[in-house]
Amino acid sequence: MENSGDVHGPFLGDEAFLGRFARNFVAQDAGKGGTNIFSARDTIYTVNSRLRTKRISDVTIKEAASSFFIKPSSYDDLQGLLWRHGLIILEAPRGKGKHLLGVRLLSDCQERLRQDGRHLNGLHYIKMGWQEINAWHLPKEPGSCYLLDLSGSTDEPPTLEFGEDLARDADNARYDGVYLVVLATSDVWSECKAATHTLTRSFSPPPAREIVRRHLQSKFQVANYEEWLSVGDIQELISRIESPSEAAELAEEIAKNGHRENLTEAAAEVLDKFGSWRKHLSKWFKEHEDVPARAAMLAAAVLDPSLPAEIIDARKKLLEILKDREAEVAPLAGPGRTGYLELLQAQQVKNRFSISHQRKGLDEAVIRFVWNEWPQAHPYLQEWLLALATDVPQPRVRRIADVTVKAALQAGSTAYMGLVRKIVTDYPQSWSLALEILDLTVVDPGVGAQVRQRLLGWVTNKDPDFAALAVEACGRRLGQERPSLALHRICRALSRDPDDKGFLAAEKALVSLGNDEISRRAVLDTVRTWLNSQPKTGLPAFIALTTRSSSFVLSALASETDDESIAFFKNGWTVAAASTMSRQVLAAALGAFIDTCEEGRVEPGIIAEIVGPLLAESVNKSLAMMVLRRANSERKDADGPLRSHLMQELIWGQLNKAREAAPSGRESGV
User: Fold this and answer.
1) How many C-beta neighbours within 10 Å does residue 276 have?
2) Which residues, at least 6 apart from 346, have a Cβ–Cβ distance to it below 8 Å?
3) pLDDT band at 337 (very low <50, low <70, confident <90, very high)
4) In Å, what is the CA distance from 75 to each residue of 79, 219, 485, 598?
5) Where are the alpha helices (DSSP H) in 427-534?
6) Strand partners, 179
7) 257, 224 Cβ separation under 8 angstroms
8) Quick one: angle between helices 232-240 and 244-256, nearest 10?
9) 260: helix, coil or strand?
10) Phi–psi pair at 180, nearest 5 degrees
């Protein structure tokens, strides 16, 4: 397999490491219902394993099977092809309705299996968290139907080999009642199409007008839907709609206004909403040319919904940044609470103002409108957003990040990354805002690859603050959803100086992922690889996990442990003993590890097998005394049974025998 485009630069510069590239794999746990996924860092190999799956919700299945779902004219051909071969690839641009069509096809397959009296196991998404997948090891639970969306979920398009294996494997799976629908765009599927041309189908979505009509008639039961469809401006809008989802959204918006008596006014509001509220905002800003009023509107948009006092305070901050000399800041200045409701045409929702409660999307439209109309104000607006996100509750920070990112993405802008950079260099007090922005964009299908590439560069940046932010972000959403990508970046940060903020943040991010049940297995197998191929990176990672993450240690040793997990810890401590680490530091780390195992009631035989040979070596006798006498342990109570057992075995000279200890020997007591 080719190496990912997201893995390059100095990290792959070591030819010795490249020689080991094919041998040293990283495993990613597939979670419940699956086994492991093996990866050479960011390139994925699946060996006797299944990708993670998630059940398709009953709501989605019901929507696909409903009377308002319009089948394409070629539906019978698509359904027959899937039923005969167990596989179909739906190739179409994003937003053309592939997703719901795929669910409907799979739902019909389940119904035919039910009629045939076959075993049923439901409909499932194949969760994508990796760059490359092996077609031979896609999930194949008997009676299951799967939807694999490759439209924008991978950094690297699947290869010709993937298409060949997919087609070859489908017929065998079909006999077990397994059906697979793959969703792809032409660019993603270009290499595979040569091998799957007989199973690849494009389709034409139903006309937008028919989608709107069917939704109004069947889903929303709007009595006067024909009147709505006869409005000239509505007809013109429908003629411009290309996306089935947008047509369904228009029908929903019409249904919300379907009860209003004045059809002309209702239609005007619907049209304005689908025009990103531009007409409404152009009129409002023309009628309110004074800066304080405009500042109030922008504050209400960013904080929507919010308390009146919060809007006024945010408005005041913006005016101060803009240095508006006409702004009134006296206690009784401004139009007052009721006046602001009228000024902003806001709705009162309990005790808060909302300009988008009745006008969905107006808040984001205001931000886009101001950003586009007054580009000279960009530096001031950024400064204002940072001030609003400082020393406030996390929900407020999350809200500011959300509207900022959405407004930028819809405008095709990457201004949010400039804001992140500004936070690192000038506004460290808004650090949490930077992390929220990265969480929202790092796995986005459209911009995620660019953000991940930026993080990759930051982990080796000379400025430790950039490195610290990058690896902290890796310990959050990226690490949970795409562990191999996150761990690769953390690995590079661990090559920094141990006193560097980036290094310390990398240790913390690694421990965070080790504590997380979803990413824990990937962390263990990644660190195993580091210990073997690059111990200077692997050793600090191993020490951090074994001394600061009790859940990581106990999940591997306290429940259903296996020889592989024991070998991991045994090898880690062997590498530690052979390193230049001082005996005092090593003893403290070993002591913390033993304390964790004792508190988690790990069997003494297991710990003896892991640390016994190390403690029994003649050169390490002093180390054994330091560890077992608690000189470096944080616990000062009486020795527990685990330490007593190790001390007794050491005195008797039995720890050397741990090298040959059989698995049954782990049951030994104190």
Assistant:
1) 17
2) 300, 340, 353, 354, 355, 357
3) low
4) 6, 21, 39, 62
5) 431-441, 448-458, 464-474, 477-481, 483-493, 501-515, 520-533
6) 145
7) no
8) 150
9) coil
10) -130, 130
